[in-house]
Protein backbone atom coordinates (compact mmCIF):
# COMPACT_ATOMS: atom_id res chain seq x y z
CA UNK A 1 0.00 0.00 0.00
CA UNK A 2 1.12 3.58 -0.59
CA UNK A 3 2.88 5.83 1.89
CA UNK A 4 1.59 9.10 0.40
CA UNK A 5 -1.84 10.62 0.95
CA UNK A 6 -5.01 8.73 1.80
CA UNK A 7 -8.32 10.46 1.02
CA UNK A 8 -11.44 9.19 2.78
CA UNK A 9 -14.93 9.94 1.48
CA UNK A 10 -17.57 9.22 4.13
CA UNK A 11 -21.35 9.41 3.93
CA UNK A 12 -21.89 12.93 5.27
CA UNK A 13 -21.86 16.24 3.42
CA UNK A 14 -20.12 15.77 0.06
CA UNK A 15 -19.76 17.98 -2.99
CA UNK A 16 -18.39 17.15 -6.44
CA UNK A 17 -16.26 20.30 -6.08
CA UNK A 18 -13.96 18.41 -3.72
CA UNK A 19 -13.12 15.80 -6.34
CA UNK A 20 -10.75 18.15 -8.17
CA UNK A 21 -8.38 17.84 -5.20
CA UNK A 22 -7.77 14.17 -5.93
CA UNK A 23 -4.41 13.18 -7.34
CA UNK A 24 -3.64 10.05 -9.34
CA UNK A 25 -1.32 8.85 -6.58
CA UNK A 26 -3.91 9.20 -3.80
CA UNK A 27 -5.16 6.05 -2.08
CA UNK A 28 -8.94 6.45 -1.94
CA UNK A 29 -11.23 4.91 0.68
CA UNK A 30 -15.00 5.15 0.45
CA UNK A 31 -16.90 4.71 3.72
CA UNK A 32 -20.48 3.54 3.26
CA UNK A 33 -22.34 6.06 1.02
CA UNK A 34 -19.02 7.80 0.36
CA UNK A 35 -18.03 4.83 -1.81
CA UNK A 36 -21.23 5.18 -3.84
CA UNK A 37 -20.56 8.92 -4.25
CA UNK A 38 -17.12 8.17 -5.71
CA UNK A 39 -18.42 5.54 -8.11
CA UNK A 40 -21.31 7.75 -9.24
CA UNK A 41 -18.72 10.39 -10.19
CA UNK A 42 -16.45 8.04 -12.09
CA UNK A 43 -13.88 7.18 -9.40
CA UNK A 44 -12.82 3.73 -8.27
CA UNK A 45 -12.29 3.41 -4.50
CA UNK A 46 -9.23 1.39 -3.55
CA UNK A 47 -11.28 0.19 -0.57
CA UNK A 48 -14.99 0.48 0.20
CA UNK A 49 -15.74 -0.10 3.88
CA UNK A 50 -18.76 0.05 6.17
CA UNK A 51 -22.01 -1.61 7.16
CA UNK A 52 -23.69 -0.14 4.06
CA UNK A 53 -27.00 0.17 5.89
CA UNK A 54 -27.68 3.50 4.19
CA UNK A 55 -27.61 2.15 0.62
CA UNK A 56 -30.00 -0.11 -1.27
CA UNK A 57 -29.08 -3.70 -2.23
CA UNK A 58 -28.67 -2.49 -5.80
CA UNK A 59 -26.32 0.29 -4.72
CA UNK A 60 -24.32 -2.15 -2.59
CA UNK A 61 -23.83 -4.38 -5.63
CA UNK A 62 -22.61 -1.34 -7.54
CA UNK A 63 -20.16 -0.54 -4.73
CA UNK A 64 -18.87 -4.11 -4.63
CA UNK A 65 -18.32 -4.28 -8.39
CA UNK A 66 -17.00 -0.72 -8.67
CA UNK A 67 -14.39 -0.89 -5.88
CA UNK A 68 -11.05 -2.66 -5.89
CA UNK A 69 -11.82 -4.15 -2.47
CA UNK A 70 -14.93 -4.15 -0.27
CA UNK A 71 -14.88 -4.66 3.50
CA UNK A 72 -18.32 -4.96 5.06
CA UNK A 73 -19.42 -5.45 8.66
CA UNK A 74 -22.57 -6.12 10.65
CA UNK A 75 -24.58 -2.87 11.04
CA UNK A 76 -25.63 -3.75 14.61
CA UNK A 77 -22.73 -5.59 16.24
CA UNK A 78 -19.95 -3.13 15.55
CA UNK A 79 -17.97 -0.81 17.83
CA UNK A 80 -16.67 1.67 15.25
CA UNK A 81 -18.39 4.13 12.96
CA UNK A 82 -17.83 3.68 9.24
CA UNK A 83 -15.55 6.73 9.27
CA UNK A 84 -13.46 5.32 12.11
CA UNK A 85 -13.08 2.00 10.30
CA UNK A 86 -11.90 3.93 7.25
CA UNK A 87 -9.44 5.90 9.38
CA UNK A 88 -8.01 2.69 10.85
CA UNK A 89 -7.49 1.33 7.35
CA UNK A 90 -5.84 4.59 6.31
CA UNK A 91 -3.47 4.61 9.30
CA UNK A 92 -2.48 1.02 8.56
CA UNK A 93 -1.05 2.15 5.22
CA UNK A 94 1.40 4.37 7.14
CA UNK A 95 0.59 7.42 5.01
CA UNK A 96 2.18 10.84 5.07
CA UNK A 97 -1.23 12.49 5.39
CA UNK A 98 -4.96 11.78 5.53
CA UNK A 99 -7.76 13.97 4.17
CA UNK A 100 -11.27 13.30 5.47
CA UNK A 101 -14.26 14.38 3.39
CA UNK A 102 -17.93 13.73 4.04
CA UNK A 103 -17.43 13.44 7.81
CA UNK A 104 -19.41 16.60 8.61
CA UNK A 105 -23.09 17.35 8.08
CA UNK A 106 -26.39 17.40 9.93
CA UNK A 107 -25.33 14.81 12.55
CA UNK A 108 -23.41 16.83 15.13
CA UNK A 109 -22.43 13.66 17.02
CA UNK A 110 -20.73 12.26 13.92
CA UNK A 111 -19.08 15.62 13.18
CA UNK A 112 -17.64 15.93 16.69
CA UNK A 113 -16.55 12.29 16.70
CA UNK A 114 -14.72 12.87 13.41
CA UNK A 115 -12.95 15.96 14.75
CA UNK A 116 -11.86 14.05 17.86
CA UNK A 117 -10.74 11.17 15.62
CA UNK A 118 -7.94 13.35 14.30
CA UNK A 119 -6.13 12.91 17.62
CA UNK A 120 -5.50 9.28 16.67
CA UNK A 121 -3.69 10.33 13.52
CA UNK A 122 -1.70 12.93 15.46
CA UNK A 123 -0.59 10.23 17.91
CA UNK A 124 0.79 8.32 14.93
CA UNK A 125 2.49 11.51 13.66
CA UNK A 126 0.29 11.54 10.57
CA UNK A 127 -1.07 14.89 9.35
CA UNK A 128 -4.86 14.71 9.21
CA UNK A 129 -7.38 17.24 7.89
CA UNK A 130 -11.15 17.49 7.51
CA UNK A 131 -12.61 19.37 4.56
CA UNK A 132 -16.11 20.35 3.47
CA UNK A 133 -17.58 23.15 1.37
CA UNK A 134 -17.18 25.74 4.14
CA UNK A 135 -14.42 24.47 6.41
CA UNK A 136 -10.88 23.09 6.46
CA UNK A 137 -9.91 21.70 9.86
CA UNK A 138 -6.50 20.59 11.10
CA UNK A 139 -5.08 19.70 14.50
CA UNK A 140 -1.69 20.47 15.98
CA UNK A 141 0.20 19.66 19.15
CA UNK A 142 3.29 21.67 18.23
CA UNK A 143 3.63 23.63 14.98
CA UNK A 144 1.50 24.17 11.89
CA UNK A 145 1.67 26.18 8.70
CA UNK A 146 -1.72 27.57 7.70
CA UNK A 147 -2.03 28.08 3.96
CA UNK A 148 -4.50 30.36 2.21
CA UNK A 149 -7.11 28.00 0.71
CA UNK A 150 -9.88 30.37 -0.25
CA UNK A 151 -11.41 30.52 3.21
CA UNK A 152 -12.17 33.84 4.92
CA UNK A 153 -11.39 33.17 8.56
CA UNK A 154 -8.96 31.20 10.70
CA UNK A 155 -10.14 30.24 14.18
CA UNK A 156 -8.20 28.48 16.92
CA UNK A 157 -10.05 26.33 19.45
CA UNK A 158 -8.51 24.20 22.20
CA UNK A 159 -9.29 20.49 22.06
CA UNK A 160 -7.71 19.96 25.47
CA UNK A 161 -8.68 21.84 28.67
CA UNK A 162 -5.78 24.25 28.10
CA UNK A 163 -3.38 25.09 25.28
CA UNK A 164 -0.31 27.12 26.24
CA UNK A 165 2.46 29.00 24.46
CA UNK A 166 0.35 29.94 21.44
CA UNK A 167 2.28 32.16 19.03
CA UNK A 168 0.87 33.35 15.70
CA UNK A 169 2.83 34.86 12.83
CA UNK A 170 1.33 36.17 9.60
CA UNK A 171 -2.11 36.89 11.03
CA UNK A 172 -4.09 40.13 11.40
CA UNK A 173 -4.34 39.53 15.14
CA UNK A 174 -1.01 38.11 16.36
CA UNK A 175 -0.52 36.23 19.61
CA UNK A 176 2.66 35.76 21.60
CA UNK A 177 2.93 32.98 24.17
CA UNK A 178 -0.82 33.10 24.80
CA UNK A 179 -2.99 30.56 26.62
CA UNK A 180 -6.41 29.34 25.53
CA UNK A 181 -8.74 27.46 27.82
CA UNK A 182 -11.66 25.30 26.78
CA UNK A 183 -14.71 27.52 26.27
CA UNK A 184 -12.80 30.71 25.39
CA UNK A 185 -13.36 32.39 22.01
CA UNK A 186 -10.35 34.73 22.04
CA UNK A 187 -8.87 33.27 18.84
CA UNK A 188 -12.04 33.02 16.73
CA UNK A 189 -12.26 34.70 13.28
CA UNK A 190 -8.64 35.69 12.70
CA UNK A 191 -7.42 36.51 9.18
CA UNK A 192 -4.28 35.59 7.27
CA UNK A 193 -2.21 38.55 6.05
CA UNK A 194 -0.38 36.64 3.30
CA UNK A 195 -0.35 33.27 1.52
CA UNK A 196 0.48 31.49 4.77
CA UNK A 197 0.90 31.93 8.50
CA UNK A 198 2.37 29.87 11.31
CA UNK A 199 0.88 28.58 14.54
CA UNK A 200 3.16 27.36 17.32
CA UNK A 201 2.10 25.95 20.68
CA UNK A 202 3.97 24.57 23.70
CA UNK A 203 1.40 22.21 25.20
CA UNK A 204 -2.08 20.86 24.52
CA UNK A 205 -3.98 20.17 21.31
CA UNK A 206 -5.23 23.01 19.14
CA UNK A 207 -7.83 22.93 16.38
CA UNK A 208 -7.17 25.20 13.42
CA UNK A 209 -10.40 25.89 11.55
CA UNK A 210 -10.38 27.77 8.26
CA UNK A 211 -13.93 28.73 7.33
CA UNK A 212 -16.17 30.81 5.11
CA UNK A 213 -19.88 31.61 5.07
What tags apply to this protein structure?
alpha/beta; 213 residues; 31% strand; 4 helices; 4-stranded antiparallel beta sheet
Topology as a string of helices (H) and strands (E): EEHEHEHEHEEEEEEEE
| Overall radius of gyration | 18 Å
- Spatial sequence of strands, sheet with the most strands: 4-3-2-1-5-6-7-13-9
Number of strands: 13
Q: Report the sheet-strand fraction.
A: 25-35%
Q: Segments where pLDDT lies below 50 for 5+ residues?
A: none
Specify the biggest β-sheet. 9 strands, mixed
Oligomerization: single chain
Mean pLDDT: 93
Write structural notes for this entry.
The chain is α/β, with parallel strands linked by helices. The protein has four helices and 13 strands. The strands form two sheets. Strands 4-3-2-1-5-6-7-13-9 form a nine-stranded mixed sheet. Strand 3, helix 2 and strand 4 form a beta-alpha-beta unit. The longest helix has 16 residues. The protein is elongated and about 55 Å long. The mean pLDDT is 93.
Task: Describe what is shown at a glance.
With 213 residues, the protein is an alpha/beta fold. The chain has helices at residues 33-40, 57-66, 82-92, 108-123, and strands at residues 5-9, 27-31, 47-50, 70-72, 97-101, 127-131, 135-140, 143-147, 153-158, 162-169, 178-181, 196-200, 206-211.
Topology:
Elements lengths: L4 E5 L17 E5 L1 H8 L6 E4 L6 H10 L3 E3 L9 H11 L4 E5 L6 H16 L3 E5 L3 E6 L2 E5 L5 E6 L3 E8 L8 E4 L14 E5 L5 E6 L2
Parallel strand pairs: 1-2, 1-5, 2-3, 3-4, 5-6
Antiparallel strand pairs: 6-7, 7-13, 8-12, 9-13, 10-11, 10-12
